[in-house]
Specification:
With 155 residues, the protein is α+β, with helices and mostly antiparallel strands. It folds into 2 domains: 4-87, Arc Repressor Mutant, subunit A (Orthogonal Bundle), CATH 1.10.10.10; 93-150, Dna Ligase, domain 1 (2-Layer Sandwich), CATH 3.30.1490. Helix content is 43%, strand content 16%. The chain has 6 helices and 6 strands. The strands form 2 sheets. It has a 3-stranded antiparallel β-sheet. The protein has a 3-stranded mixed β-sheet with strand order 5-4-6, with no helix packed on it. Helix 3 crosses helix 4. The termini are far apart. The model has no long low-confidence stretch (mean pLDDT 84).
Length: 155
């Protein structure tokens, strides 16, 4: 799959910030862009090293920070303390299964409109927001009859 737009965006960012354009950075970008959904740094490192064994841990993590700074990646910090990265795209919210770790992205215009009304009511200028819902996915509920009893006190 061609990632020409993202490669050009990275090249432009590197040039604007007087940073080197390297094959390692391009390789990491291509592996990252092939991911569907969210990926941890460790999983990304494993995938990069499968294709490019010479690229080290530090290079991968520094490049991910650079991709975030360039607006090509977004770090996500959920309740488990593990940073995950996703390709920067339109706003969306998340459902997170606290059992198996499944992450579902969703969009809901009704929620967005309600947030806009709340912001206006209190005179805020919204800069950003996160909407994360934690619970048990359908599979975990089916395989564990007492899944509802596991609900933490996070209400």
């Amino acid at each position: 799959m061609s990632h020409e737009i993202e490669q050009k965006a990275l090249a432009s960012y590197l040039e604007d910030h007087n940073l080197k354009h390297t094959r390692q950075r391009e390789a990491i970008l291509n592996v990252f862009l092939s991911v569907k959904g969210h990926i941890t740094g460790d999983e990304l490192q494993r995938r990069v090293r499968e294709r490019h064994p010479g690229i080290g841990y530090t290079t991968i993590y520094r490049t991910m920070k650079l991709l975030c700074d360039a607006g090509l990646a977004t770090p996500r910090h959920f309740d488990d303390g593990v940073t995950r990265y996703e390709i920067e795209h339109e706003h969306h919210d998340h459902l997170l299964c606290v059992r198996c770790g499944r992450i579902v992205e969703f969009e809901c215009q009704m929620i967005e409109q309600a947030q806009d009304r709340i912001v206006a009511r209190y005179g805020f200028r919204l800069l950003r927001h996160r909407h994360e819902l934690y619970g048990h996915c359908a599979d975990c509920q089916r395989h564990t009859p007492d899944a509802s009893a596991d609900a933490s006190d996070g209400s």
